[in-house]
Amino acid sequence: MVSGNLFHSRKNSWPTQEYISKSTLHLLDFDDAVPPEQAWRRRLNSHANLLKEFSVTFLEAIKMVKLGIRMWSYVREEASHGRKAPIDPFTRESYKPSASQGVPLGGMGSGSISRGFRGEFRQWQIIPGLCEASPVMANQFSIFISRDGGNKSFASVLAPGQHEGLRSRKKADDQGISSWGWNLNGQHSTYHALFPRAWTVYDGEPDPELKVSCRQISPFIPHNYRESSLPAAVFVYTLVNTGKERAKVSLLFTWANSIGGNSHLTGDHVNVPFIAEDGVSGVLLHHKTAKGNPPVTFAIAACETQNVSVSVLPSFGLSEGSSATAKDMWQKMVQDGQFERENFSSGPSMPSSPGETLCAAVSASAWVEPHGKCTVAFSLAWSSPKVKFSKGSTYHRRYTKFYGASEGAAVDLAHDALTGYKRWEEEIEKWQNPVLKDEKLPEWYKFTLFNELYFLVAGGTIWIDTPLLSSNMGNGQDQSKELEYANVKVTEATVHCRQGADAEFTTDNEYDSTATNGENQVNEQDTGEVSDENESVDTFRIGNSTSTLQPFAMTKQEYEDDVGRFLYLEGVEYVMWCTYDVHFYASFALLELFPRIELNIQRDFAKAVLCEDGRKVKFLAEGNWGIRKVRGAVPHDLGTHDPWHEMNAYNIHDTSQWKDLNPKFVLQVYRDFAATGDMSFGVDVWPAVRTAMEYMDQFDRDNDGLIENDGFPDQTYDTWTVHGVSAYCGCLWLAALQAAAAMALQLGDRDFAETCKRKYLKAKPAFEEKLWNGSYFNYDSGSSSNSKSIQADQLAGQWYTASSGLPSLFDDSKIKSALRKVYDFNVMKVKGGRMGAVNGMHPNGKVDETCMQSREIWTGVTYGVAATMILAGMEEEAFTTAEGIFLAGWSEEGYGYWFQTPEGWTMDGSYRSLIYMRPLSIWGMQYALTLPKAILEAPRVNIMDRIHLSPVNGGFSHNETCVRKISTKGGCFSNSVFHCAC
Fold first, then answer.
1. Cα angle at 120 between 119 and 126, to 5 degrees?
2. I need a surface site. Which of 109, 155, 740, 952 has the fewest CB within 10 A?
3. Where is this region: Disordered (predicted)?
């Protein structure tokens, strides 16, 4: 816990009044129009500098020549099948990334759209795994102001005109958006971000006598598994007239029928006006996606009230020849401030032709009295009910459970957003206020903590509904959700109790399912679509049976309680779902905010541990061949082109030989089990936990209880070679032995608990003897030039041990000494602590440049190291360490990585892999500051001391276990797991 007033002297506060005048703040002080004191801020005229991507050194390039050749061949092979390789270092987007990002829109898992701090809509991720980075510049808010007497008028797009996506020179005959009034300078306009909300305040721009605040709100609400899945956002404009004359103010929302990139040019798109209940009206934009992807429908809408009048222009184009052009539309708004009411009855537009851009506009107009105030609200929603992966599997998104799968759902989403956003805000403020009002925390930490959550929306997240199998349990809104499963045999692993020498894990409850073409897939009869690529729906083996990682039939109550299945990308450049070695760091955010999602991800990996996929794969680093998924090995990821069916999209190394994945699985499972107290979860995953531990026995080659690395990068640092025992993997292994022993004890598998404890007691002194050098743990036990390097992440296992209520792995003096060494060398010797923790540092104070990853600063690892420091009572060092990521990535003097935090950067600030999963580990810091009650109240008696060793020797062996069959009586442990006598 943070102690006292430690950080009062160094808050790094960004006072609101330094960006907005006090008088304006006073005028806007109602209806949440004023940004909070703790927010990330930028002026709209701030320069969005281009970002600099990292490059390998000459020596690094020489070492990776063979890998590069094989990867080039693989990328081309995937392209020949119309697919994008999960890692493609050769293809660069034509649109250069810049420091212009802002808070993304919508909830989780239904496709995402980001919005830059200067107002542009960008980073389109509607199609799984595809990110269209460039902004669609026709998507804008604009304002038109006229006053009684007609002597003052203003018309401007509410974004500065110096956009990289806008042509710099305006032609006199231009019919497109360059003809609009790009008059805003941005000098007196500011952006304020506190995810999932953002405020843009126009302090007298473009009208000096009108103060305008735009509040962007999305339904990201922790522990709310319904509304947090909704693809919708609201923009609430607060208007204050400081002039002496009444002002007519018209706000305009324009939107192109596009999902980013060149999608607007594909043709056959249609716009339709609509009028809904409660004064909500607008335009539906039906987008027919290319390449067989499911269609998308957008809704842009405004809410008509007693003071606000809404009108629409259902369609206009950007070029001459359109029935109405962008220039015509703009001139109409300048002249009248609104469109004709008859437009609501105009019906569907003509389908757009290929090469033509089809746009729509919604106007909301109000009279604002002198010194009066007015509120105008718009909403944006998009309905993309089906998500289709490139190898054929199609699913319904989570929100369809509540809104159905019809195109008309976009209207309901837009309506409910406009009528429910105030409740969203109440719940968001209730969640955030305890952190924001905690005076012991640095100001930069408060808003960075929340803003790093952008990734759970913008990280390519997919959240699907779990289908209800029983045909007599139909859902009234959407019968199509009664989906069928693939024609495969499913086997659930359970634990059997067998007396005698042959006691072992077996499988039972074999279930034969009948149906179509893949797990959870949309029924062809309902959708009219056929999955034409079934090569991915191959089979995995579980023992002697096969599976495609699918759940069993549920009762209606179970279905209603179920939160579906969730995927998120490693990064927009590393397109792999739920990359597990990285999830190890990021998962604290899900555990804190959406624990049921976190448990379901762990269940997916537990099933995967017990699966085997025998298809051959070529591993690019070594050029050797192996099978895609080995039974007992935790997969690196859940796949790219057909997740859950085709795991391990990563093919640089054979990850079945990685030494960190299995321990990370055991540690995450135990942490989640301990934090949530969910005994049924523990029962579900225990067979996989035990199997994962047994699998690792093969890597203890000298029978000292420790696993050894194999002289290649066999862990998450996948260019950083390891020899012998390593600080990183060895520490994870020690922690996993503790976690497995504790979990085995609590689930009644006492023999296995004894086995793990024996190994731990043998491995711990061997680990310290081989790696402890008096002040820290050496990188590895080999004799290479970097074996004595100081690795920032050397205590990752201790991080999880302390996070799970387990006893420390080492003496406190060793833990603090190692962390102090990391702080003094990896943190403070890198630009005075202003960049984060470099991964590797030689004991002579020089950065370890063995490979590109040893010399990088990894943002998520730095947050993880800071969390470990907090748990060790080193709060000041922890926040100084993490502050380096803020200063380099988020501050105004930094490199511009806000809302696109990369995996890491080099000493000169060059990034690698923007919009990356691992920085969510800042929530590991918050977890450490506010440990769950279950962890704080962990047994005072060391849980390892509760495991009494019998006089039996041996390693992980099936023959020594006698496990109570707990799969049918998980509830018996709910009250007191240590004294259950059932």
1. 130
2. 952
3. 506-534
Report CA 563 to chain centroid distance, whole Å.
17
Question: pLDDT tens digit string along 632-660?
Answer: 999 999 999 999 999 999 999 999 999 99
Look at the block and give the residue holding tokens 């495969």: 488
pLDDT at 427: 98
Positive or negative, the CA dihedral 790, 791, 797, 800 is positive
Contacts of 976 (CB under 8 A, 6+ apart): none
Q: Which residues of 585-607 are buried (b: 16+ CB within 10 A; e: fewer)?
A: bbbbbbbbbbbbbbbbbbbbbbb
Q: Does residue 950 surpass a pLDDT of 80?
A: yes
**pLDDT for residue 967:** 38
- Quote the pLDDT of residue 172: 54
The span from the CA of 282 to the CA of 312, in Å, is: 6
pLDDT digits (tens, 9 = 90+) for 391-400: 878 999 999 9
Grouping H, G, I as helix, E, B as strand and the rest as coil, residue 211 is: strand
Indicate the DSSP class of residue 388.
E
Nearest by Cα to 589 from 140, 824, 148, 926: 926
Q: At what angle do helices 727-747 and 750-771 cross, to 10 degrees?
A: 160
CA distances from 886 to 652, 835, 862, 883, 899 (A): 32, 8, 11, 5, 12
- Give me the amino acid identity at 258: S
Which residues, at least 6 apart from 887, have a Cβ–Cβ distance to it below 8 Å? Answer: 834, 835, 893, 894
Tokens 């709910």 map to which residue? 974
Strands 462-464 and 565-567: antiparallel
Is a pLDDT exceeding 90 seen at residue 402?
yes
Q: pLDDT digit string (tens) for 783-838?
A: 999 999 999 999 999 999 999 999 999 999 999 999 999 999 999 999 999 999 99
3-state helix, strand, coil in the chain (%, to 5): 30, 20, 50
Contact (CB, 8 A) for 919 and 882: no
Rounded CA-CA distance 103/458 in Å is: 9
Residue 918 to residue 862: CA distance in whole angstroms: 10
Question: What is the three-state SS of 420-458?
Answer: HHHHHHHHHHHHHHHHHCCCCCCHHHHHHHHHHHHHHHH
Q: Which residues, other chains included, contact 522 with Cβ-Cβ below 8 Å and sequence gap of 6+?
A: 386, 394, 395, 396, 480, 483, 529
Q: How many angstroms separate the CA atoms of 916 and 451, rounded?
A: 13
Amino acid at 43: R
Instruction: Assign 486 a pLDDT band (cuts: 50, 70, 90).
Output: very low
Side-chain half-sphere exposure of 711, counting CA atoms within 13 A: 4
Burial 672-692 (b: 16+ CB within 10 A, else e): bbbbbebbebbbbbbbbbbbb
Cβ count near 775 (within 10 Å): 13
Task: Tell me if 142 sits within 8 A of 180, measured CB to CB.
Answer: yes
Residues, the chain: 982
Q: What is the pLDDT of residue 636?
A: 98
User: What's the token pair of residue 12?
Assistant: 């790094």
Task: Give yes or no for residue 534 having a pLDDT over 90.
Answer: no
pLDDT of residue 15: 75
| 665, 638 Cβ separation under 8 angstroms | no
Q: What confidence tier does 623 reach under pLDDT thresholds 50, 70, 90?
A: very high
Question: What backbone torsions phi and psi does residue 566 show, to the nearest 5 degrees?
Answer: -130, 140
Tokens describing residue 898: 């806000």
Neighbouring C-beta atoms of residue 855, cutoff 10 Å: 21
**Predicted pLDDT of residue 14:** 65
Cα–Cα dist 783/792, whole Å? 20
The pLDDT tens digits for 284-320 are: 999 999 888 999 999 999 999 999 999 999 999 998 8
